[in-house]
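If you are new to this repository, start here. Below is one unmodified record pulled from the training split, so you can see the exact layout before writing a loader.
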Amino acid sequence: MDKKFIILLVVLVAAGVVLSSSFYSVDETEQVIITQFGAPQGEAVTEPGLKMKVPFIQKVNRFDKRFLEWDGDQNQVPTKDKKFIFVDSYARWQITDPLQFFRRLRDERGAQSRLDDILDGETRNAVASHDLVELVRTSNREPDLEAEIFEAIEDSLETIEVGRDAIQGIVLELANERTTDLGIEVLDFRFKRINYVEEVRLTVYDRMISERNKIADLFRSEGQGEASRIEGEKERELLEIQSEAFREAREIRGQGDAEAAAIYNNAYNRDTSTRELYDFIKAMEAYDTAFDGNTSIFLSTDSEFFKYLKGIN
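And here is the target side for that same chain:
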């Protein structure tokens, strides 16, 4: 192989290496800090495209421009009212000043570690400064219930003065006050999960059972009252029906007695033999009603009641 060709090939390869080390590209999702022997050179490169640097001496440090995730560990924390709960939280953050970020934190791993200290600490402070009910509810409960049911459980509807959303906002604000010199901004903070320890969980269950029992007792009381009202209505209607039936029966019996008396009167006045038979039958009925084996009676001989006894021996 020709010696000149080999030299030319080596020169071309070296030139290619130098050129490749002199250029770098910046993606739309990236921002870059150029360092020389570990020291930052100039401002951060945030515009995408093909860029130049000093080959071999300068180094490209890339940082994400997008929103980044922070996921905290679940911690057991006491509330203001001395109830221990497990709190699991998460946040979204962004590198807003790449140069300051590089100087203070170097990389995303360092940022995550620093956020662990800041956000976990502020979460503990916020939880310890508020009652449990403030952490699990955002606003006051206004259940769409009947007035009686609402009154039955009103004592368990504690008033919320701050609320969960406001507490999250407090943590976010305080965290950003501590990250201003780190070149990052916490964009959002949320309680991912709040779980009760066993002792608190049993207390909550007992409270829920008590509320439901109050509502059940109220329904039971209303049902018994309604049953008593229905029973009273039934008795009243029954008495009205019986009274009306008794009145109608008396009227029918009176009409029957009047018709019977009219028939007797017509028969009695029709002829003498019929009248005498009627008198005899009525007298016999009277005797049967008035006398028994132990009856003693004193009558005058001219008494009408004695008339049919004269011939008895």
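Two things worth knowing about this chain: The mean pLDDT is 82. The first strand starts at residue 23 and ends at 26.
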